């Protein structure tokens, strides 16, 4: 108790509100640093290019699509998870279950800004998907289409209701009740969306209001022992899960110390090191090959290649396919440069009787090999899809990338080695 009094004088709502603000500022500063790495990887440029290409073919598809197309299923598949999933980011920590427990009566001042922040972030997802669906909805409903702003208002209401329900579920002591409530929210969200986009806002509003009244009635009838004031353990565990997912995303673009390094077996692929001759000069080649094959870096390269391959197969414009393949390859090259940072702080490597400068050549060879395999795969896909002369686009990107490896990347790695 004494610790809580010292940390938060008087235990007032104002002190608790200031605590949340400090937590949020710390979280924002940390996240913005990782987002800078994401931006430098040209990830947003790739998304923008994908958006331009997708928009072009979306419009062309709508011109040929019959107005009888069952658009409601697309609405349900995209919007139901976006509006039903998600919970409040509380920014709670392990020690809070001890030091904030005496302040539970005024913790609403901490949770209210948490709820507002979570609602704003998660509502953006629903708004963006609604804007994506809107041309299809307008095409299929014609003059019967409802005003966009009115539909967006209902989307926000459905999202707010779901987030409030998710927050109250956190107070349930029984995981069974929590699971039932989640299933109810998902089901009624789907029904409300079906009626909203199929019958209009009036009928959709009636369904949404009836669902809220029924959920509230069931909640009020629950025994008092089934509902906590503040479910500290659940909220802290939920915050850890959400933060872990965020770290997992950032780990695709930068080293995240808070995230444990995941080493995967991949015995078949890792067996490629058996082709290396057992000699001193192969040490770094062996080590970094194992690192590349068994780390998340290989997964990132595979995912980028798969996305580019799907775009090449799906689009009809050979120019767009060529641009996407070239963009994907240079994003891959940016990602592969992170291999050089692996084992940078491994003490035992400094004890090996091997020239450390061999590391630079080994890393460049692995980067060049992975980049070459991707370039050949994308070029073959372009050729099989009938791209003709544009099939050379990945090969041209490959040649430029290998030139960068031999010049710019080599100088960069050498400078990094000399500063260690």
Walkthrough of the structure:
By secondary structure, the chain is mostly helical. It is 72% helix and 0% strand. It has 16 helices and no strands. The longest helix has 34 residues. The two termini are 47 Å apart.
Quick tags:
disordered N terminus, 16 helices, 420 residues, mainly alpha, single chain, 72% helix
Architecture blueprint of SSEs:
Elements: H1 2-7, H2 13-40, H3 43-64, H4 71-84, H5 96-99, H6 108-141, H7 148-169, H8 175-199, H9 201-221, H10 232-250, H11 267-270, H12 283-294, H13 296-314, H14 318-336, H15 358-384, H16 392-419
Helix pairs in contact: 2-6, 3-14, 4-6, 4-8, 6-7, 7-8, 7-9, 8-9, 12-15, 13-14, 13-15, 14-15, 14-16, 15-16
Summarize this entry quickly.
The chain has 420 residues and is mostly helical. It is 72% helix and 0% strand. Helix 7 runs antiparallel to helix 8 (175-199), helix 14 packs parallel to helix 16 and helix 15 runs antiparallel to helix 16.
Contiguous runs where pLDDT drops below 50 for at least 5 residues: 1-10
Mean pLDDT level: 80
Query: Which structural category do the helix and sheet elements fall into?
Result: mainly alpha
Shape: flat
> Topology as H/E string?
HHHHHHHHHHHHHHHH
Strands, count:
0
Classify the helix fraction into a percent range: over 70%
The helix count comes to 16
Question: Beta-strand percentage?
Answer: under 5%
Radius of gyration: 27 Å
Quick one: biggest sheet? none
Distance between the terminal alpha carbons, to the nearest Å? 47 Å
């Amino acid at each position: 108790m004494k610790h809580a009094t010292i940390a938060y004088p008087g235990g007032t709502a104002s002190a608790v509100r200031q605590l949340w603000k400090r937590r949020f500022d710390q979280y924002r500063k940390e996240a913005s640093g990782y987002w800078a790495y994401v931006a430098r990887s040209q990830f947003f440029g790739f998304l923008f290019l994908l958006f331009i290409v997708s928009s072009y073919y979306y419009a062309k598809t709508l011109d040929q699509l019959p107005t009888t197309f069952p658009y409601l299923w697309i609405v349900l598949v995209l919007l139901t998870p976006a509006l039903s999933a998600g919970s409040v980011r509380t920014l709670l920590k392990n020690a809070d279950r001890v030091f904030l427990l005496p302040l539970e009566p005024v913790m609403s001042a901490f949770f209210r800004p948490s709820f507002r922040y979570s609602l704003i972030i998660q509502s953006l997802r629903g708004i963006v998907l609604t804007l994506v669906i809107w041309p299809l909805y307008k095409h299929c409903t014609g003059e019967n289409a409802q005003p966009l702003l009115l539909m967006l208002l209902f989307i926000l209401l459905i999202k707010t209701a779901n987030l409030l329900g998710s927050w109250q579920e956190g107070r349930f002591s029984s995981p069974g009740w929590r699971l039932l409530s989640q299933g109810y929210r998902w089901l009624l969200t789907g029904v409300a969306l079906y009626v909203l986009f199929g019958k209009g806002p009036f009928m959709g509003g009636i369904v949404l209001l009836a669902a809220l009244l029924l959920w509230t009635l069931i909640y009020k009838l629950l025994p008092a022992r089934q509902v906590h004031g503040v479910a500290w353990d659940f909220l802290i565990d939920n915050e850890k899960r959400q933060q872990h997912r965020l770290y997992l995303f950032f780990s695709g673009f930068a080293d995240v110390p808070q995230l444990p390094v995941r080493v995967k077996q991949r015995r078949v692929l890792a067996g490629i090191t058996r082709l290396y001759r057992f000699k001193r000069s192969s040490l770094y080649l062996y080590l970094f090959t194992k690192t590349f094959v068994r780390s998340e870096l290989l997964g990132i390269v595979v995912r980028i290649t798969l996305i580019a391959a799907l775009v090449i197969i799906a689009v009809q414009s050979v120019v767009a396919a060529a641009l996407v393949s070239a963009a994907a390859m240079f994003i891959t090259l940016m990602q592969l440069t992170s291999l050089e940072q692996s084992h940078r702080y491994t003490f035992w490597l400094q004890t090996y009787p091997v020239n450390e400068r061999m590391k630079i050549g080994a890393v460049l060879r692995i980067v060049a090999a992975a980049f070459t395999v991707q370039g050949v795969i994308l070029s073959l896909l372009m050729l099989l899809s009938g791209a003709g002369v544009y099939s050379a686009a990945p090969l041209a990107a490959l040649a430029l990338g290998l030139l960068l490896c031999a010049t710019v990347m080599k100088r960069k790695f050498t400078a990094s080695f000399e500063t260690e």
